[in-house]
Fold this sequence. Notes:
- The protein has one domain (4-59): Ubiquitin-like (UB roll), CATH 3.10.20.
- 24% of the residues lie in helices and 22% in strands.
- With 67 residues, it is an alpha+beta fold.
Amino acid sequence: MKDESESSEYVAIYEDKDGDWMLVGDIPWLMFIETCKRLRIKKRSDGTGSGLRANDTTNKERGLSMH
């Protein structure tokens, strides 16, 4: 069965306190609300250049390019 998040044309990302862009849902909710500075919804095809951290293996599993 295909993961619903993979079939979406859009992906939600957020900027943390350190200025790094991460995928929403990668960390527990309480940690997220303490560290999130801003949210963005981007087209999955615009994943390149999004600034997502390269050491986040979840991003690789979801098919996002990280630069």
